[in-house]
Amino acid sequence: MTVDKDTFLKSDLLERYLIGLTTTQESLEVENYINKFPDVKEAYITLQNKLELVAFANAEEAPTHLLGSIIETINDKPVITLNNKPKRSWFAYGIAASVAALIFAGSSLYFFIENQQLINENQVIVEEILDLRSDIDENNLKLEALATQFSQLNNPETEKYILKGNVRAKNLKTIAYINPKEKTSLLDVVSLPTLPKNQEYQIWAELQDKQVNLGILSVTDRRLQKIPYPQDALGLSITIERKGVKPTNNTTDTPVAEIELNLED
């Protein structure tokens, strides 16, 4: 197929012609372009020189005793002259081998890089799956805890006690869910008035002759808080204490909320 000179130069016909990979028709077409266009001939000579350098760099030195035999053979053969037809170099197969080696090396590097990218992508996917499993496990634990709490709240044996603040803590409201048979206690801290930074609310179990501290109260996203079961307690109370200082029976403040309990088993 006849094309313009520039399109011909952009194709790979010259390279394939030099290494002997063109068909008969393609070879005739290449030779016609070389003879017809000086630019094509110059490109052909330049490419030939470059490929010769590659061939010589990869060629092995022939045994010296073959030189005489080659010269004698050449002298015995008639000289055939082709008008304006470019000559193919005797090292065409060497060039082809060199080009093939370069193509193989390039392909190997390409597939190596692709393989590394796939390995990295697979590692990212594995890490994402592990993170997802971790999130699922964490969510399952939360669901189990909520299911347990829901079961406790709906247990007919669970008693509900509402503690409301006095004049010192008017907006305080806390609900205690206590099951004397299951020995479980949950708190729903509905609201707590704001305190100075050095103070905190604490809840106590009122026993016959002493008080037992059950922990610090805080509004935690309206989540139920588990506290120790107030064994033998007669009531619950909430006090305001100094933060970071563990109070004793003699140092507890006057309760801001309190309620009696009926914990008969």
Structure described in brief:
The protein has helices at 5-10, 13-18, 24-36, 38-58, 66-76, 92-153, and strands spanning 159-164, 173-179, 184-191, 199-206, 211-217, 225-226, 235-242, 257-260. It has 265 residues and is an alpha+beta fold.
Strand order of the largest sheet: 1-2-3-6
Please report the distance between the alpha carbons of the first and last residues: 103 Å
The radius of gyration over CA amounts to: 47 Å
CATH class of the largest domain: Mainly Beta
Provide the low-confidence segments as ranges. Answer: 79-83
Largest sheet: 4 strands, antiparallel
Helix content: 40-55%
How do the SSEs run, as a string of H and E? Answer: HHHHHHEEEEEEEE
Whole-number tally of structural domains? 2
What is the beta-strand fraction?
15-25%
Number of distinct helices: 6
Average pLDDT across residues? 78
* Number of separate strands: 8
Shape: rod-shaped
Structural class: alpha+beta
CATH architecture classification of the largest domain: Sandwich
- Write down the CATH topology of the largest domain: Immunoglobulin-like
